[in-house]
Write the structure tokens for this entry.
Amino acid sequence: MRRSSKLLAACCGFSLMAMGALGVQAKTLVYCSEGSPEGFNPSLYTAGTTFDASSRQLFNKLVEFERGTTKIVPALAETWDISEDGKEYTFHLRKGVKFHTTKNFTPSRDFNADDIIFSFMRQFKKDHPYHNISGGNYEYFESMSMPALIKDIVKVDDYTVKFILNRPEAPMIANLAMDFASITSSEYADKMMAAKTPDVLDQEPVGTGPFQLVAYQKDAVIRYKAHPDYWAGKAAIDNLVFAITPDNSVRYQKLKAGECHVMPYPNPADLEAMSKDPAINLMQKEGLNVGYLAYNTLIPPFDKPAVRKALSKAINKEAILEAVFQGAGKVAKNPIPPTIWSYNDAIVDDSYDPDAAKKMLADAGVKDLTTKIWAMPVQRPYNPNARRMAELIQADWAKVGVKAEIVSYEWGEYLKRSKDKDRDGAVLLGWTGDNGDPDNFLAVLLGCDAVGSANRAQWCNKEFEALIQKAKVVADPAERTKLYEQAQVVFKEQSPWTTIAHSIVFEPVRKEVIGYRIDPFGGHIFYGVDLK
Amino acid sequence: MLTFLLKKLGVLVPTFFGVTLVAFVFIRMLPGDPVLLMAGERGMSEERHAKMMKQFGYDRPIYEQYFSYLGDLVQGDLGTSIITKKPVFKEFMTLFPATVELSLCAIIIAVFLGLPAGMVAATRRGSAFDHTVMTGALTGYSMPIFWWGLLLIILFSGILGWTPVSGRISLFFFFEPVTGFMLIDSLLSGQEGAFISAMSHLILPSVVLATIPLAVIARQTRSAMLEVLGEDYVRTARAKGLGAFRVIGLHTLRNAMIPVITVIGLQVGVLFAGAILTETIFSWPGIGKWMVDSIFRRDYPSVQGGLLMIAAVVMIVNLFVDLMYGLINPQIRHTD
């Protein structure tokens, strides 16, 4: 109680300073973030921590995900048209959108098509004056195949922009809602270039988002204030503070002490205490991810679907959920999480049945099988303890006569070696969705083009490939849904992976926080949040 | 004295270059490709990987990379972080004051408690106090910093509410850093209560970081004092009828200080190592946490630059310690 009062006093003090002489008691929300952002331009980075500090507070995209869902809603583009051949996307931009006014920059105009052209061309064109500024690596733009996909981006008029593609791409709209597609001010960029300080654009950002940056003290605090002229209405909280707190137990102590209102990534061991704390609301949601065990389908006997299925049936997933996820997970039966549209709930999972597995292996002519299980050296939401998971699978397989050796490598090496087509053994890995589109799981992880890279099962199935390729170019969502549902049926029959689990994301927030929603993409968004 | 100083400096220069080589080679010996780590599960094409390796200069032979690094170094350029794209020196200098402030407080606590505790334990050898100090020192030395820090947070911040959980100052206070030292900046800010807030945030992390040096200093002081107390000249001083204060303070302590100062000097390295964990627990924005993050991300320029700067600080402190020997015992200046 005493701590809460102190925090309230602190918040009021900070807010009053920020609000000047208005004399109004301002609201400050403190978020105990888990780390420091790499920078403030989301197109240059890939870490969720960086997106939390930048794109999710400071910027807008043409389209965005509705808060707490994977549904696409208009943002800087009010409407859009897609040409018959699916190769031209015309966006009609919102008028009257204001950029932030900062100590470096006072915008002389509202947001318009020039800002869209600048934000994308910087990433797209190697000869763009800003392309090489701040390192010039646009990882997400590249990994979403934008350079190959986009033919041109054309300004039709001040409030109309056309994206011309080399081929139809149904997930294009979802791609444009991703963090790398955040829109920066071209006027600010020009000003910084003229002042010979172009890198300031990426360090002291100016966006159209609901909050604007006030100050960043590296590894300590990020301070924001509400953008007074935000196009969707000023945020309910006046100030937003990220108190950078790397240790999850310490974050919990801060939350309990009232030193912060929201914290990410709680320690699973603290969840029970959190759920009993009257001051804390322990929110939870299924994560947009999948953890899997990928067999190498190019190497016998794993090239036989029956063998893969038998090994899947030998794994006790419920026991894994209990021991590895400590209840914070859900058994996965499909390669996409249930929160994604087109999830085929009619599919029946391979039930745990060691006797049946043993028989299936014998029927397939497999005897005294020895193999490897690759355990990731890092913790991920889709696999909080890969070594423990591997041990459980090893024990399960031993019961059906399969001897498995557990191997692990440094993370970079693990990612590199697990891609090899002649890799020995099954790999534990997973994926967190980028844009809520099934293509982002099925094509990226199981498509023929991804064999030898992200497709760790090295699985190229003609029927599956035809379905996902067709779904990529069809614009009608109902038809796409059907195609992806069918693709999941093929996947289950073939079992290139044993799908293990989807994690459940927990987020403890203090009871005085109103309107906070867990973001399925793992982000932390504070527009729309209020304090009692 | 000048010759003594020049000799010591003469040793520092090759040591410094040795450190550049060790820092450069060791980080590259760790398995893991910085470019692949950046891409994570998403991966990247071989062409793109090659392009980025070229961009960072990692496609060149390692000796070429090293000489290029040395060339930049002699011009005062520590390189640019491949993650944040900011100059390493600037990043280091932003965070370093926080580590220095914390380490200074910790060493002050360790010296001011460790020296008297060791002295009293030595003069009352075998007493309950002696046993308590030695048991406490052994416990302190063996205590895992991470566990100890969390325990103190739960007790003093969580249960008793006496100290803040973490950070350098309350969020209430907001001012631009001038020196980077929060105690000084809080005073300069003129904001009422800022200094007290900064002090209260410093207590727990300083105590945690001071624990191991305190234990080491107390044990070292005790054993050095015991050795000197058995010397003939101390017995003679006592026989002459000198008071206990003069015998201990003048004849014993001065001679016992040489090994103690050596140990205090060596604690600077221990403090930097301890700062890594202490800073993580207490969300203290210093170089410890930054170095760990840089190692995990294989941010070669940051790791190289950080190690070099830390080594330079440790070397300078040890040079200072060497000079202190000379002041305490002038014979060392001539014999060394």
Notes: Residues 244-281 of chain B form the longest helix (38 residues). Chain B touches chain A through 54 residues (CB under 8 Å). Chain B has a mean pLDDT of 87. Residues 92-335 of chain B form a domain with the MetI-like fold fold (CATH 1.10.3720.10).
